[in-house]
Amino acid sequence: MKKIFQKKYGLTLLLSLVAISTLQNCERDDICAATTQTTPRLIIEFYDATDTDELLNVSRITVYRDGVFTDENGVTTEPTEASDKIITTYNDKDSYVFNVTSNKIALPLLVGAEGQPPITVRYVLEKDTNLRIEDDDPLTNSNIDIIEITYNTEFVYVSRACGYSSNFNNLGVQRITDSDQWITNIEIEETTQESIKDENTTHVRIYH
Amino acid sequence: MYASIIRSVILLLLFSTIALAQEEKKTVNDTLVFKQKYGLRIGTDISKLARTFLSDDYTGFELIGDYRLTKRIYIAGELGNEERVLESEVLHNTTKGSYFKAGIDMNFYQNWLDMENMIYGGIRIGASTFTQTLDRYTIYDTNNQYWDGRYTVEDSEEFSGLTALWTELQIGLKAEIFNNFFAGFNVQLKVLISDKAPGDYENLYVPGYNRTYDSSRFGGGYSFNLSYLVPIFKKDKIIIQEKEAEE
What we know:
The complex is a heterodimer of chains A (208) and B (247). By secondary structure, chain A is α+β, with helices and mostly antiparallel strands. Chain A is built from two helices and twelve strands. In chain A, a hairpin with a 2-residue loop joins strand 3 (88-89) and strand 4. Chain A starts with a helix and ends with a strand. Helix content of chain B is 12%, strand content 62%. The longest helix of chain B has 21 residues, at 2-22. The relative contact order of chain B is 0.21. The interface between A and B is large, with 45 and 39 residues.
């Protein structure tokens, strides 16, 4: 009789241990952890046009997607304060790239259907924002350059909690020409030419 | 007053035990014979039936059976069919398929007289073939607010010819509630041995194994079952009792 009980308790103990560990697994498996690499942003760094290996800050830059401040009548009201229509900084989701001096930005890309045709998005990169919003001198103003980004999406499975994320392939970045440009050249890093899978490396260099 | 009563009681007890000990004990073996029914027990998991009626995202049926080999050992197995819809913020998946499990149960319960109840441990090998349909999925993008929402792929994709193999440990009980009619309960611990998953996707649910986990190969399950014993033959169960011999 004693032996039987030992056997029974042994099994019950084993089973309850497994049940506990399974419950813990539940939590870990069903929430997509913030540390999991999912859909990446496009990481851009700004370099010095004359000394091409040196990072160079862009003074008082503001970045937002083209058209976000345009209303239904086609009137564009340029932003005078930070809002969620402006992209967040590379490493802080609570602060915005509005009138800040920085050499690194991360652009969220629009996720659309896989395959052809490629997706095109435009971003406004406004340099010297302070000249527009802080001083009243009509002769000095900020300098807006627009870049156009084209790419294809590719959906890859991550996990049951995160589902699928998107990679961005066949990246192309162009500057939209205007009369007064502060961007001199745009270069896509060789390592990311094929596909953007994560935010671990810089994808695009902008020289100015 | 009380003290004297207690003292006399103690004395009485002492003497009586001595008196008993002095008595010579003679024993003989008394043999009792009970008829034990052996046969095929067939039933179904009523929890699966209940979930089929109560839950929109589950349909399932399971036949259970066991055959008594010896006093303690039973050959046992389950055969079933399940359809399970799993839905989360990012995935909507339907798994459909069949499974069978085969193994043995061992009864650890020392039955009284002619009773045939079970407290048992069982081992199984389970196998399943199934189809997974990824009905729709939403791309996980933490920056989606900036572009006004997430992108959802609505084209459903079917992955067929999927298989899985696992082992299972069961602990449970079966009690005879009417003549030849049993009610039972068990819990199941499963360890996935191998599975064939679709490329660039995974098996979220395996019929018979239940849901899978990313971080381990363990799974779990339970069963509430009703079964009927078809008696095929009877064997004698011999109980030898020591009895005091009568003079």
